[in-house]
């Protein structure tokens, strides 16, 4: 493990890292993006995100962290085209986001599986909508269920699954659409620590297998360091901006348990926690995260 690199990142300032150029092709380009909500009833505008600029390199996992209410979920909604943005450039795989995109899949905190469909038919739903031939749906769904370890539960209904299994099915559904970018909004936060570790390892393994690019929102500092190649830290809302970008050079193909034992892990967790503490309002800054 490259502990020398890890220490370098842990001691570098956020500003130094923010100015470092991104290497290689980019899966998501975000330049001066501003997003807000109009209320027709009140004739008002609420600025959730002011001027975000950062990139997600191809074949990377980037964690988006920041105080509650700073606009992380809002931003993910704009990336997949469910919510318009007011200014800036937002490009997925080189093309501007102008509306809902079939090439981005989203995994939310709660699995939101359709209770009347079996696991298999939930996972294949997006493919069915696209008119994919039945045999191809069956093959692809079978492959995805295999990947997340749910093959034996294909015929089960969501209520017959544990929370962790439901989130696995949700992940399989997102992957079945073969997205160029997987967006995850606190996907493991409702799970117990052991299940979270297991699913985190699965995500890391699937990523290595598929070379999928992932942008993941998380509140958990340790989760961000365990999983990500890079953490993008947003400032406190309203009108949040990118506060800093932190590289996590802990290596590819790692497992969460191995990572916890690396010498670079602790300093990175502390650095990220300190950055987030500094963003808390004065009255709650003494509380731990
Ligand atoms: N539909 C909406 N209409 C108006 N304002 C909204 C809407 N959705 C979110 N907001 C506001 O936008 C801001 C950002 O909300 P958002 O849910 O994106 O934050 P977040 O960073 O995901 O928070 P958390 O970490 O708690 O999930 C908040 O102030 C919220 O009240
Ligand atoms: Mg949110």
From TrEMBL:
Assigned keywords, A-Z: ATP-binding, Nucleotide-binding, Transport
PROSITE patterns referenced in this protein's UniProt entry, alphabetically: ABC_TRANSPORTER_1 (PS00211), ABC_TRANSPORTER_2 (PS50893)
An annotated Gene Ontology molecular function: ATP binding
Domain of life where this protein originates: Bacteria
Domain ABC transporter: from-to ranges: 28-261
Record-linked InterPro entries: AAA+_ATPase, ABC_transporter-like_ATP-bd, ABC_transporter-like_CS, ABC_transporter_ATP-bind, P-loop_NTPase
SMART domains: AAA
Full protein name: ABC transporter ATP-binding protein
Organism: Rugosimonospora acidiphila
């Amino acid at each position: 493990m490259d502990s020398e690199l890890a220490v370098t990142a842990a001691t570098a300032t956020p500003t130094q890292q923010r100015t470092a150029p991104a290497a290689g092709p980019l899966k998501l380009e975000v330049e001066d993006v501003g997003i807000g909500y109009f209320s027709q009833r009140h004739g008002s505008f609420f600025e959730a995100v002011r001027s975000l600029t950062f990139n997600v390199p191809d074949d990377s996992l980037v964690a988006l962290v920041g105080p509650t209410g700073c606009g992380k979920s809002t931003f993910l909604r704009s990336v997949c085209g469910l919510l318009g943005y007011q200014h800036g450039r937002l490009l997925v795989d080189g093309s501007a986001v102008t509306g809902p995109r079939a090439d981005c899949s989203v995994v939310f905190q709660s699995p939101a599986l359709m209770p009347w469909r079996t696991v298999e038919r939930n996972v294949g739903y997006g493919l069915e909508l696209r008119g994919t031939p039945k045999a191809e749906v069956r093959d692809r769904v079978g492959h995805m269920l295999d990947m997340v370890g749910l093959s034996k539960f294909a015929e089960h209904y969501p209520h017959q699954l544990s929370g962790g299994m439901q989130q696995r099915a949700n992940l399989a559904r997102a992957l079945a659409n073969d997205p160029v970018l997987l967006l995850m909004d606190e996907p493991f936060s409702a799970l117990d620590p052991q299940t979270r570790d297991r699913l985190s390892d699965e995500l890391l393994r699937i990523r290595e297998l598929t070379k999928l690019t992932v942008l993941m929102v998380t509140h958990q500092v340790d989760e961000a360091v365990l999983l990500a190649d890079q953490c993008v830290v947003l400032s406190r809302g309203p009108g949040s901006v990118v506060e800093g970008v932190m590289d996590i050079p802990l290596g590819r193909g790692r497992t969460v348990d191995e990572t916890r034992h690396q010498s670079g892990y602790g300093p990175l967790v502390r650095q990220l926690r300190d950055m987030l503490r500094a963003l808390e309002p004065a009255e709650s800054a003494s509380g731990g995260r």
